Amino acid sequence: MSNDYFNFKNFTIHQKITKAKITTDSILIGALVNKNHNIYLDIGTGTGVIALMIASQNENAKIDALEIDVDSYNEAKYNFEISNWKNNINIIQEHLQNYEKNTIKKYDAIVCNPPFYNATFLSPDKARNNARQIINLPFEQLIISTKKLLIYPNGKFHVIIPFSLRTSFVNIALKHKLFLNEALEIIDNKKSIRILMQFSFNEEYLGAKKFKIRENNKYTDEYNNILKTFFCCPTRIRT
Length: 239
Hints:
Number of domains: 1
Order of helices and strands: EEHEHEHEHEHHEHEEEEH
CATH class: Alpha Beta
CATH architecture: 3-Layer(aba) Sandwich
Largest sheet: 9 strands, mixed
Oligomer: single chain
Strand content: 25-35%
Structural class: alpha/beta
CATH topology: Rossmann fold
């Protein structure tokens, strides 16, 4: 696999310019998120991989892909244009807070693989900071804007974050009256590394499940099975 592009069964992701490269996180949320909604917002689309994974499984879905970084925006736009779903995906270059204030549109589902690296570890590369650090999109602002953009009362918010930040995120969401409905704990070699969560206006909690990527350094059947839907052969993605 070239670092400059990534071949899926039904589309190709080019990622030569963007700093927001495809990661295991983006693949997992793209593969595991509910595909039965009608109108999606993909916050921080990066390469556009999550939007394209959703579109490839639901050809009736209409997806808005939001991206602030110029390089990522241009590359995602190209990836959408060369795909079979260019008429289903609309890319928007705007900051989430500005978009939320200026649009009247509401969404059945919002998906996000947000930045989460602490500002203490700033890299010298501004674009990489924008793609990967919490200073540009704090969790609280993400939740506030997401709540305003969701259709009431049935809209769903799907987000993947580090497992260690789960309690903080859930508490912030609760403060703003978004409630955790489902959680999927993602485990790699017995270590809980990420959690995929669904929030809504509904207070019903349906429980948590576990999803194992590897056991004893061997990729699990459940991980390989979700990849089969999107890849011709087993593929490994950097975390």
